[in-house]
Amino acid sequence: MSVPAQVLSEDGGILIEGLRKVYGQGDTAVEALKNINMHVRPGEVVGLVGPSGSGKSTLLKCLGAIIEPTSGRMQLNSDVIYDDGWKVKDLRALRRDRIGFVFQAPYLIPFLNVTDNVALLPMLAGVPNAEARRRALEILQALDVGHRAQAQPSQLSGGEQQRVSIARALVNRPPVILADEPTAPLDSERALSVMRILNRMARQAQTAIIVVTHDEKIIPTFKRIYQIRDGRTHEVAGQGIEVE
Ligand SMILES: Nc1ncnc2c1ncn2[C@@H]1O[C@H](COP(=O)(O)OP(=O)(O)OP(=O)(O)O)[C@@H](O)[C@H]1O
Ligand SMILES: [Mg+2]
Questions:
Q1: If you classify domain 41-67+87-237 with CATH, what class do you get?
Q2: What DSSP letter does each residue of the chain carry, written as one string?
Q3: What are the residue ranges spanned by the domains of the chain?
Q4: Whose CA is nearest to atom 5 of ligand 1?
């Protein structure tokens, strides 16, 4: 039985309160997150920055239900998903239907072509194959890799693979997108074009988006940025330069 979820905030998006994560136990324990507090509204793209080892990937993995936090609270849209323990029974369904991930490495499926790598998620969600492939092609074209739709992942450049993995994160139009260094392998123009697509997606579909980055090319595009230092979040204003 799952406990009825108590709503912390009515206005949706992502809400994190007092999140803590300790890896391991005893002498070897690492307290990666000490006290994380964030709110990302629907339609907002926020940056998450911090030194190497400060806990950025750990935070995205907790929020994406890939690893379990130690304590605290997390809310996605109007549902509390974690409150000192998971509040949703089916974490796989949560990951599949409600969260789009873009990882540091693209993790494409090597034996599927580019279109099917992207179409797989809508297919798993029950969309007929032809419609899933049509949606996949549309998003691949928007990301400027439509011409590689029939290629195998191993035949793509690093930047192309990364754009395919971004297409895969966007194709189901999840209410939340979590991106870990999505523009690292891209040149300046393509990095900004990824930010343009994420901002458009946020505005049109009211998606809440967190982008972990060190990339100086895209940092000026954020209106709000959270810094992690010593396991704690600090909010700072960004420049919010328009990418449209
Ligand atoms: N599976 C794990 N077991 C134990 N410690 C871990 C594990 N994963 C991460 N850590 C530790 O937790 C801390 C935060 O790591 P994390 O990967 O979240 O940092 P990061 O901010 O994403 O760094 P980077 O910018 O280098 O990607 C680091 O001290 C790291 O060594
Ligand atoms: Mg990381």
A1: alpha beta
A2: -PPPPPPS-SS-SEEEEEEEEEES-GGG-EEEEEEEEEEE-TT-EEEEE--TTSSHHHHHHHHTTSS--SEEEEEETTEEEEESSB--S-HHHHHHHHEEEE-SS----TTS-HHHHHHHHHHHTT--HHHHHHHHHHHHHHTT-GGGTTS-GGGS-HHHHHHHHHHHHHTT--SEEEEESTTTTS-HHHHHHHHHHHHHHHHHH--EEEEE---TTTGGG-SEEEEEETTEEEEEE-------
A3: 41-67+87-237
A4: 23
**54 Cβ inside 6 Å of ligand 1:** yes
Q: Indicate which residue's Cα is closest to atom 9 of ligand 1.
A: 58
pLDDT digits (tens, 9 = 90+) for 172-202: 889 999 999 988 878 888 889 889 888 988 9
Whether the CB of 105 sits within 6 Å of ligand 1: no
Quick check: 7 pLDDT over 50? Answer: no
CA of 230 to the centre of ligand 2 (A): 15
- Answer whether 57 contacts ligand 1 (Cβ < 6 A): yes
**Among the bound ligands, the one closest to the CA of 52:** 1
Residue whose Cα lies nearest atom 28 of ligand 1: it is 53
Nearest residue CA, atom 7 of ligand 1?
23
pTM of the model: 0.88
